[in-house]
Amino acid sequence: MRMFLLLLPLVLLLSAVETQGISVVDLSALREIKNSLTDITSSSLNAFFTSWDFTAPDPCSSFAGITCSLFIPKRVTTLTLGTGLSDSPGLAGILSPAISNLSELTQLVLFTGIVTGPIPDQIGTLKKLSVISLTNNRLTGSIPTSIFTLPNLHTLDLSHNQLTGTIPGSISELSSLKVVVLGSNKISGEIPILPTELLHLDLSNNELSGMLPRKNRMPLTLRYLSVSGNRLWGPLSVLESLSELVYLDLSMNRFSGTIPSSLFRSTLSSMYLQRNNLTGRVPQPPLTSPAATVYGPGSTVDLSHNSLTGELTNTLAGVETLFLNNNRFTGAVPKDYVESVYSGNTRTLYLQHNYIAEFPVKEGLPLPDSVALCLTYNCMVPPVPLGFMACPVSAGGQISRPVNQCSAFNTSMA
Ligand SMILES: *[C@@H]1O[C@H](CO)[C@@H](O)[C@H](O)[C@H]1NC(C)=O
Ligand SMILES: *[C@@H]1O[C@H](CO)[C@@H](O)[C@H](O)[C@H]1NC(C)=O
Ligand SMILES: *[C@@H]1O[C@H](CO)[C@@H](O)[C@H](O)[C@H]1NC(C)=O
After folding, report:
1. Within a 10 A sphere around the Cβ of 84, how many other Cβ atoms?
2. Structurally, how many domains does the chain consist of?
3. Is residue 203 part of a domain?
4. What is the CATH number of the domain that holds 382?
5. Is the CB of 314 under 6 A from ligand 2?
6. Which domain holds residue 304?
């Protein structure tokens, strides 16, 4: 026994020297990975692979971008390719299938660069992976379906690449999956049923079509949902019960019908619904909890370029950045909006291109410098001189709407 204890350090030392402490399989995988990628920069100062010297005694402590398990043979547990520094152009080349030999890997990260080719199918054999983040490169092909079988996957970020194909239905089985970011690719097909405890879903700027998953199939835990810039359609009633949402972006799709009143609440502090085909009114603040619609600093609501009608209610007064332009709102704007603009709480209020008849501002009150207000092309002569308004170029030069378009909404007309 004593003999064994004395020998043990020696054995460990010998195997460490022989294998450089690191598993030989992992070491040869790292070699393959390096051989298939290159630094775009030629300056060794901000190059990533400078430290990857395969004659070094302990790659686990000297290679940039890897961490290893403690015990010998050490296994690579996280791999981060690229420096991630803003002055580094990143890597070029392809992702070697040899990554799949790093069987203890829990995190795989590739920073911004111009890496091309597909995501190796074999990645799906790395059962311990919990984070896959391969963003801002030029990866092509479809997302390997094997990724959607990884039992420990928590975060999948493949945004800003050129990925095609569809999102497989097996994604719904991944109960550990919390964060899915596939934005800015060319992914098509429909949005499948999602994992029940998903927190963050970004599918923006793809080629998705069809409707959102049915109401009872939406993850109630969702806090962040963006599907902006796709070809999605159908009603928004499926979102009614998502009470945890703080960020919602459905802009630039073909959604129609009314906006569920449950989405008008201050905890949903960023809501982008612009450029759809939404109809109906902005609801009244709920009588039971009017405080639920007291929006704070940083809040943004964009309902522009829809077909919303009726008179504005107090619900959105106080939103810091508020776009209501290019709808069919009528009547007088409630005083609370005007007060919020003149107190500087609302910093942007776009109301142009509606059928609004009155913006009840007190004569001579100076507009705070920080405020961008646009009231043109409504059924009134704006009470604020054109030179004091901050209208976007797209608002056009006309101060008011032609009278013949307004007669139907002119309540003061006999
Ligand atoms: C994984 O490692 C084995 C043994 O070193 C090797 O034969 C095989 O080619 C490797 N796999 C890949 C995908 O590189
Ligand atoms: C928008 O909605 C209206 C009325 O529901 C419908 O007639 C029209 O076709 C829709 N437009 C688009 C682009 O979906
Ligand atoms: C609304 O009707 C009144 C009374 O006929 C008229 O004086 C006013 O110019 C009209 N306003 C607009 C914007 O058409």
Report:
1. 14
2. 1
3. no
4. 3.80.10.10
5. no
6. 258-285+292-414
Strands 270-272 and 300-302 turn out to be parallel
pLDDT in tens, the chain (414 residues): 444 444 445 444 444 444 458 999 999 999 999 999 999 987 777 799 999 999 998 999 999 999 999 988 999 999 999 998 888 889 999 999 999 999 999 999 999 999 999 999 999 999 999 999 999 999 999 999 999 999 999 999 999 999 999 999 999 999 999 999 999 999 999 999 999 999 999 999 999 999 999 877 899 999 999 999 999 999 999 999 999 999 999 999 999 999 999 999 999 999 999 999 999 999 998 888 888 889 999 999 999 999 999 999 999 999 999 999 999 999 999 999 999 999 999 999 999 999 999 999 987 778 898 999 999 999 999 999 888 899 999 998 899 999 999 987 655 543
Does residue 353 contact residue 395 with C-beta atoms inside 8 Å?
A: yes
Using CA atoms, how far apart are residues 243 and 143, in angstroms rounded to an integer?
A: 31
Contact 72, 64 (CB under 8 A): no
- CA–CA separation, 217 vs 213, rounded Å? 6
Question: Is residue 86 a part of any domain in this protein?
Answer: no
Residue 308's φ and ψ, nearest 5 degrees, are -75, 145
Ligand 1 pocket check for 121: Cβ under 6 Å: no
pTM value is 0.90
Cα 63 versus chain centre, distance:
32
- Whether residue 399 has its Cβ less than 6 Å from ligand 3: no
Closest atom of ligand 3 to CA, residue 406: 14
Exposed/middle/buried for residue 59 (C-beta within 10 Å: 0-12, 13-18, 19+):
buried
Does some domain include residue 389? yes
For the CA of 357, the nearest atom of ligand 3: 13
DSSP state of 156: E
Q: Does residue 349 form part of some domain?
A: yes
